[in-house]
């Protein structure tokens, strides 16, 4: 039986770099984009023999802004994927798009290429916030793009929002949530703003935390998010992700459940057979060596059993239904209560972890201090 595999394809180009973003992306000229597409297709095709051992059930095209590419380029990438890998009968094929970069022609191309799930980067419904974030679109431009997406026949759509922005109040955040949820989207990803070193936002706000909502305000914003979205049939299945029933992102779950995935493209990360590795982040090296991926990999690390256990816990506990004790035993042949006895006992007593039958998961209070809890599962 072929083992299950996910694919991640990275497009490192944007129309404009946002002030908060530390992803591997930048503005690119049309000629450079085409050269990159050719290199990515070479990399995809180099996995023909490897692909024979797997069946692909999820594909995610991210960036950057994949929708800033020219018509035809996306189709060629997906054609290469279908020629190289065995896809299951109904794979989840997701693609990130940004408002202002999609057209009816592009959306039709994505549908014909097999894309059946779109993720739209809104970030805020407030035009002042969008300007502050450095986004290229307005709320009205987003609505136009969203309407085109629905008209093109996409019935599995995610929208991204960012909370805890400078000057954000709970009232403003509630407006953001309700305006977005009222569109009847199937999925919402809600990320709290993180100041990443090296970004303009870090330089501007890093030494002025008073300009951002404090920890208590951010906590209340998080708590109200779940309460409000539940009114629209959107429920959390992971710390930052909310979905209608049956619409959780299968590719996202692969990351939290440590399923195998192969990253393709500049700087893309992989986890295959307990080996973590990254492609080079240097564009020149990538373009030269994309046809022989082994020669451009960095940070190759085989995870020993203790590291696998750590990941099982700190990734799995991000899900609202947490982890399975039986699955831990099946995977490692050891009783979880013996391996993590003191840590589990400590947080269960504090009410931050809940143990119910076979599952262990974060309580609502635990989610609010999840980083502190998850870090204690490291040996």
Topology:
Blueprint: E1 3-11, E2 13-14, E3 26-27, H1 30-45, H2 48-51, E4 54-63, H3 73-84, E5 86-97, H4 104-113, E6 117-123, H5 127-133, H6 139-151, E7 157-163, H7 170-181, E8 187-192, H8 200-205, H9 215-230, E9 235-238, E10 241-243, H10 250-256, E11 261-264, E12 269-272, E13 275-279, H11 283-289, E14 297-302, H12 305-316, E15 323-324, H13 325-332, H14 336-339, H15 341-349, E16 353-356, E17 359-362, H16 364-368, H17 370-375
Helix pairs in contact: 1-3, 1-11, 3-4, 7-9
Write up what this structure looks like:
The chain has 379 residues and is an alpha/beta fold. Helix content is 41%, strand content 24%. It is built from 17 helices and 17 strands. It has a 9-stranded mixed β-sheet with strand order 9-10-8-7-6-5-4-1-11, sandwiched between helices. Strands 12-13-14 form a 3-stranded antiparallel β-sheet, with no helix packed on it. Helix 1 runs parallel beside helix 3, helix 1 (30-45) crosses helix 11 and helix 3 (73-84) packs parallel to helix 4. The protein starts with a strand and ends with a helix.
Shape: globular
Structural class: alpha/beta
Number of helices: 17
Distance separating the two termini: 34 Å
- Average pLDDT: 93
Quaternary state reads: single chain
Helix fraction bin: 40-55%
Number of beta strands: 17
Radius of gyration over all CA atoms, rounded:
21 Å
Which stretches of 5+ consecutive residues score pLDDT under 50?
none
Biggest beta sheet summary? 9 strands, mixed
Q: Order of strands in the sheet with the most strands? A: 9-10-8-7-6-5-4-1-11
> What is the percentage of strand-forming residues?
15-25%
């Amino acid at each position: 039986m072929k083992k299950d595999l996910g694919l991640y394809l990275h497009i490192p180009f944007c129309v404009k770099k946002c002030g908060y973003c530390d992803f591997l992306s930048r503005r690119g000229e049309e000629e450079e984009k085409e050269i990159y597409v050719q290199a990515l297709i070479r990399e995809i095709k180099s996995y023909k023999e490897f692909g024979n051992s797997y069946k692909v059930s999820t594909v995610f095209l991210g960036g950057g802004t994949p929708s800033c590419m020219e018509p035809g380029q996306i189709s060629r990438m997906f054609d290469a994927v279908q020629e190289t890998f065995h896809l299951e009968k109904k794979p989840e094929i997701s693609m990130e798009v940004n408002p202002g970069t999609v057209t009816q022609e592009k959306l039709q191309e994505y549908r014909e290429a097999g894309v059946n799930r779109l993720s739209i980067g809104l970030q805020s419904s407030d035009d002042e916030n969008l300007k502050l974030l450095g986004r290229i679109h307005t709320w009205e431009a987003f609505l136009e793009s969203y309407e085109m997406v629905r008209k093109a026949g996409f019935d599995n759509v995610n929208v991204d929002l960012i909370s805890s922005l400078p000057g954000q109040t709970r009232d403003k955040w509630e407006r953001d949530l309700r305006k977005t949820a009222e569109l009847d989207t199937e999925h919402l990803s809600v990320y709290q703003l993180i100041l990443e070193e090296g970004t303009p936002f870090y330089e501007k706000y890093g030494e002025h935390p008073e300009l951002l909502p404090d920890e208590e305000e951010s906590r209340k914003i998080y708590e109200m998010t779940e309460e409000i979205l539940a009114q629209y049939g959107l429920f959390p299945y992971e710390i930052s992700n909310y979905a209608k029933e049956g619409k959780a992102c299968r590719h996202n779950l692969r990351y939290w459940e440590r399923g195998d995935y192969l990253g393709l493209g500049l700087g893309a990360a992989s986890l295959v057979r307990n080996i973590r590795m990254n492609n080079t982040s240097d564009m020149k090296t990538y373009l030269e060596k994309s046809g022989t991926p082994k020669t451009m990999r960095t940070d190759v690390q085989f995870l020993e059993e203790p590291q696998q256990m750590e990941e099982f816990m700190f990734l799995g506990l991000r899900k609202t239904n947490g982890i399975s004790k039986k699955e831990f035993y099946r995977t490692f042949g050891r009783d979880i209560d013996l391996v993590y006895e003191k840590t589990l006992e400590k947080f269960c007593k504090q009410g931050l972890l809940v143990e119910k039958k076979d599952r262990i998961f974060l309580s609502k209070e635990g989610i609010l201090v999840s980083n502190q809890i998850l870090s204690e599962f490291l040996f």
